[in-house]
Specification:
Layout lengths: L5 H8 L15 E4 L3 E5 L10 H4 L5 H7 L2 H5 L5 E6 L3 E8 L2 E6 L11 E6 L3 E2 L2 H9 L2 E4 L3 E5 L7 E6 L3 E7 L3 E5 L5 E5 L3 E4 L10 H9 L11 E2 L2 E2 L1 H10 L9 H7 L1 E3 L9 E5 H4 L3 E9 L2 E4 L12 E4 L9 E6 L2
Antiparallel strand pairs: 1-4, 1-7, 2-3, 4-5, 5-6, 8-11, 8-14, 9-10, 11-12, 12-13, 15-16, 17-22, 18-19, 18-22, 19-20, 20-21
GO biological process, one term: proteolysis
GO molecular function, one term: cysteine-type peptidase activity
Protein name: Cell wall-associated NlpC family hydrolase
């Protein structure tokens, strides 16, 4: 049975759906209104092939699979990061149909408010009711690879495929489904088997290294996507950031900051869950890559694509890694 309080919650939620109009009085916070919003380095720099990623709705699977390897490689320097459905972003400025935002929950030395980037205004939703529910209700976090948001508890009327680590306020629960608030379409349903429900983020159980590795392996074989932070495609630090975030530990978004933020660990003392870094100039220069140690001399990471070779997320021996001669140390966050 659905828990009591549903009617009152839906009355509050009824004020959520608002057009993403920020031309007059811009609010301090907006919310992502597509399954995954991609933040760009500069506004209106998307290409024709990027249309599935800049509309509303988006089709991230089509976008990533339709691109050639060269087109994927050309995303380097064009994209900043990504944010899943319902994520809060702080509004910095607007330029035409694009909004400069800071993505909350992705720490970076570049901006104390969050990771900066430009997102199409059509992908953002304004309004206070959803924000209130985010602050006051328990939340459902997608723990499956992806989960479908549906208009019915049985999941027959699917509307949107959500990536792992999507978090939405919980309104009610049945034995097999969870009713969640959304920023743009009222109450919708997620399968209970695809999510974990917590009263607050601090209630997410502290992981062991084995827990982190188990989650990381769930994405093995996924293709590389520059700036990717979702289970539709990761870059190296987006992968490690998301794996830790799924276990309630917020680490910086980028590899260099991840190295600076953890406790250094000697190579001989590596434990599962530790992060391994690689740097230019044979490990003495700037950090450019990160992977996760999984034990027995192996690591898992998202290596960058070239214009001629697909490089899916892989498990490889540390000493045989493509950047083995650029090893720059390791850190621990547990």
């Amino acid at each position: 049975m659905i828990r009591r309080g549903l009617s009152a919650a839906l009355l509050v939620l009824s004020g959520v759906v608002t057009a993403p109009s920020m031309a007059t009085a811009e609010p301090a916070t907006a919310y992502v209104g597509v399954s995954v919003a991609t933040a760009w380095v500069a506004p209106a720099t998307d290409r024709a092939v990027d249309r599935p990623a800049v509309g509303n709705p988006v089709d991230i699977r089509k976008w990533t699979t339709d691109m050639t390897l060269q087109q994927r490689a050309d995303l380097v320097g064009r994209l900043e990061t990504q944010a899943p459905y319902g994520s809060p972003v702080r509004i910095l400025e607007r330029q035409g149909d694009w909004v400069h935002v800071a993505v909350a929950g992705q720490p970076t030395p570049r901006d104390a408010l969050g990771y900066p980037g430009w997102i199409p205004a059509r992908q953002l939703v304004t309004g206070t009711a959803f924000g209130t529910l985010r602050r006051t209700r328990p939340f459902a976090m997608v723990t499956a690879d992806t989960a479908w948001l549906s208009a019915d508890p049985a999941g027959r009327r699917r509307e949107m495929e959500l990536p792992a680590d999507t978090r939405l306020p919980v309104l009610a629960r049945t034995g097999s489904a969870v009713l969640v608030a959304t920023p743009d379409r009222g109450g919708r349903w997620l399968s209970a088997r695809d999510v974990a429900v917590y009263d607050k983020a601090a209630d997410i159980p502290r992981p062991t290294g084995t827990d982190l590795v188990r989650t990381a392996k769930m994405f093995a074989g996924l293709h590389y996507l520059w700036a990717g932070t979702s289970s539709f495609g990761f870059d190296c630090s987006g992968f490690t950031h998301t794996v830790y975030d799924l276990h309630g530990i917020t680490i910086p978004r980028d590899a260099g900051a991840q190295k600076a933020g953890g406790t250094p660990v000697a190579k001989d003392d590596l434990l599962p869950g530790d992060l391994i870094f690689y740097a230019h100039d044979h490990g003495t220069g700037s950090v450019h890559h990160v992977g996760m140690y999984i034990g027995d001399g192996y690591e898992i990471d998202a290596p960058a694509n070239s214009a001629t070779e697909e490089s899916p997320l892989e498990i490889v021996k540390v000493d045989q890694h493509r950047y083995a001669d650029q090893y720059a140390g390791a850190v621990r966050y547990l």
